[in-house]
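Example (one chain per record):
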Amino acid sequence: MKRRFIGIAVPALASAVLLAGCEVPVQESDPVASATPSATATQEPPEPPEPPENGEETPIGGARQVSEENDDFVFGYSYPQEAGELPGLAAWLDQRLDQQRRTLASESSRGRAQARENGFPFNKYASGTSWEVVADLPGWLSMSAALDSYSGGAHPNYRFDTVVWDKENAAPVEPIAFFTSPEALDTALGARLCEALNAERAERRGAPIEEGSTDTFDACIAPDETNLLLGSTNGEAFNRIGIQIAPYLAGPYVEGSYEFTFDMDADLLEIVRPEYREDFAAGD
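Predicted structure:
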């Protein structure tokens, strides 16, 4: 999967977008609350919760929430109870937590040293990751994440991530791996995605996309270049596909991110790999 992570400037941690399922309530404005493809901008995510004074982990049942702040960096990482109740997934997420914290500590220490050597002020580095449930099926737990970072520049950045956990085999699976190939997914979904994207671009820009435009921000985006989510409205089978496109990939920063939801249809079901076919169904 050649999902591209594009960073943007934001004033706070980015919140992960949940793909609608029976286990997650959604607002009417949520892009996954309707079977019709829609989009929303994500330009100013909500402020994260304040870290505890001692900087230690805050236990939340089967969930995990870690907040740490010192002179060099601010670090946050969280995942929900559903993930914490699966030992293999919890271990996988904890490993990523440890790796991200070590990387942040190393880079912030180096940044402080460079700032001191060059005689300019040092701004604390930051890293935050928030995992959320997209769909909880008998054999699978689909999750999405918002990841933000700051490394001393003019602006912080954020991006998206995704994983589907195989409960039976205790292993992570990329959403794209459920389909026969990225090219097949583009054939089945690419035109609909491009149409929905251009419609939303036109609404935000106040003018339609010029046919034949060579502007990078007018180009279509292949599904495997986005953050792909597998969702469910019934908790029994995957019947929706979510698309998250970070700013600067499909448009300038001022347009924010683009997010869409599509029902599984006959074309998409046809390209699901045979071994996963029973876990998918047509959308409502």
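Caption: Residues 87-118 form the longest helix (32 residues).
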